[in-house]
Design brief:
The protein contains 23 helices and 20 strands. It is of the alpha/beta class. Helix 20 (about 415-425) links the parallel strand 15 and strand 16 (about 435-440).
């Protein structure tokens, strides 16, 4: 077993990827390094940044070092002892359309230079390609993946092998690619060709690509997202089940004078007063000193700051998974850019995928932060509760009373509710004859017996605005629930906060709408039951 899963939250996982040169903690980002040109000594990746994994390009190494890299080995060549992943040259195909290397040769070359993780030479599906060319890239990549796996199994080699998933923005082709390559049992799978999508900030399409690819790969297998490295989108990718990332953004942005922050990017020339960061680079200089540096030194400093920011985000994501607060971090990051927020909302299509690995609870329970109505439709813990209540709440009682959920938590400690229940008990109505449930725009229905259970009272909510479609969904849920329980009679006490049409529609389905005043409601309940 090369991959061990330690913890979960949403579809995000903390794991251990075992390689020849050590354990890679996931989620992690592998900085892309160019052995011919680096803004700082590569050794500090190991000594200062404590990276678990780096990635370089086997094709570039072959073109520039040839057999010398085989003689020295990739680790001695780069002067690093951490696990090293090598790409096969597919990025060059994406950029230039062709490279002069055979797929079998470049795979053997990666093994010969001592790569810990190698990638087959796939054919990228460019974002602007025709459907015909994308279809060909999927078929050719699958052909190469089958051949590479066959040769790999025969030779029983120790390098971990990555199979890319192609299809670009043609989502049906992404599904075909993922489903077929999953059957080959590779060590690691990767979503290929997302770079152009991310450059255009088309995060909605990226969510579709990531979700469809991940849903067809076994949960026991790690997933890599090529070219993803900006902090604002890493929590989104991790939530969808991606474990490994690589990016040269820390260098590329630095060369363009761009300064990465968790919430976005600033241009150095626009920073006038102070550097808004406390990393080892920024805490030891001011903005004036940075601007006055020679260009090469300035690029080096910004690149190091950028990498510190990205690695900090990775650590923050891992801690969020441990605590069970990845959803909270994802929602915070999604507000960093309108395109990212639209992508976050797109997750409503993929709740089942988010729930696939999401734990029911953690050893230390963390309350839910419900920012708006979108949280209700995305957070797996809320979706799971509604499903379980519908399927597992059995009752022999003949009547049901639906009360508006009060503002206090748990709902049962509200003074008016407690007084109401006390009177119901004194008349022998509750709990002998009657179920008491609270209706809520968040959980739809909460039986009083469950209202102290997680997460039914462990949440904080913002302003929730339900549109017509969402209100109709709540009505359908309540109708389905009461129909399955076959109560003799259902009473509902209306709330001014809810549209009157909800109560009119429920009334037409056999629900008796009572007065808002609990005393008058109690009298009608007593008359109806007695």
């Amino acid at each position: 077993m090369s991959f061990e899963i330690i913890d979960h939250d949403l579809h995000g996982r903390i794991g251990k990827l075992y390689t020849k040169h050590g354990i890679v903690r996931t989620p992690t980002l592998a900085p892309v390094i160019n052995p011919l040109r680096s803004p700082f000594p590569l050794k500090i990746l190991e000594s200062e940044f404590k990276v678990d994994l780096v990635i370089t390009n086997a094709y570039i190494i072959w073109k520039n070092y040839g057999k010398k890299a085989i003689e020295k080995g990739i680790h001695r060549l780069l002067g690093l002892n951490v696990p090293i992943m090598t790409d096969s040259g597919a990025y060059q195909i994406l950029e230039y359309g062709y490279i002069d290397v055979n797929p079998d040769f470049i795979l053997d070359y990666q093994k010969a230079i001592g790569s810990d993780i190698g990638v087959i030479l796939d054919i990228p599906s460019g974002a602007g390609n025709t459907k015909y060319s994308v279809e060909w890239s999927v078929k050719e990549t699958l052909r190469r993946a089958r051949r590479a796996k066959m040769l790999w199994d025969v030779d029983n080699r120790s390098m971990l092998l990555v199979a890319p998933i192609q299809g670009g923005t043609e989502l049906k082709l992404v599904e075909i690619s993922a489903r077929n390559v999953a059957s080959l049992d590779y060590d690691i799978y990767a979503l290929g060709s997302p770079t152009q999508i991310m450059e255009n900030y088309d995060f909605e399409t990226l969510v579709d690509m990531m979700a469809i690819a991940r849903s067809h790969i076994p949960t026991t297998k790690p997933m890599h997202l090529f070219g993803a490295g900006h902090p604002i989108m890493l929590s989104l990718a991790v939530a969808l089940g991606y474990d490994l990332f690589d990016s040269a953004s820390y260098v590329l942005y630095a060369r363009n004078g761009r300064y990465i922050l968790p919430e976005g990017t600033l241009r150095i020339e626009n920073i006038t007063k102070e550097l808004p960061c406390e990393c080892p680079i920024c805490s030891n200089m001011d903005i004036e000193s940075l601007k006055e540096m020679p260009e090469e030194e300035r690029v080096s400093k910004i690149a190091q700051h950028n990498l510190y920011t990205i690695m900090r985000e990775i650590k923050l994501i891992r801690e969020a998974i441990r605590e069970g607060t990845l959803m909270r971090l994802l929602e915070l990051r999604s507000r960093a850019h309108p395109s990212l927020y639209r992508a976050y909302r797109r997750l409503r299509k993929y709740v089942r995928l988010l729930e696939r690995c999401d734990p029911i609870t953690k050893p230390e329970v963390r309350g839910l932060f419900i920012f708006d109505e979108h949280t209700i439709h995305i957070n797996p813990k809320i979706i799971r509760y509604k499903k379980w209540l519908m399927e597992r709440f059995f009752t022999s009682r003949q009547y049901a009373i639906l009360l508006p959920a009060p503002n206090v938590k748990p709902f049962s400690i509200d003074p008016k509710i407690r007084d109401f229940l006390k009177k119901l008990k004194s008349k022998g109505i509750y709990p002998e004859l009657c179920d008491v449930l609270f209706y809520s725009e968040i959980f739809n229905l909460v039986p009083i017996e469950l209202c102290e259970m997680y997460p039914l009272s462990q949440f904080e909510k913002g302003k929730i605005t339900c549109n017509k479609e969402e209100l109709n969904a709540i009505i359908r849920y309540i109708k389905s629930f009461i129909k399955m329980r076959r109560y003799r009679k259902i009473f509902i006490i209306p709330s001014k906060k809810w549209p009157s049409r909800i109560f009119k529609e429920l009334s037409s389905n056999g629900v008796e709408v009572l007065e808002e005043d609990l005393e008058k409601a109690l009298e009608r309940i007593e008359r109806s039951i007695v």
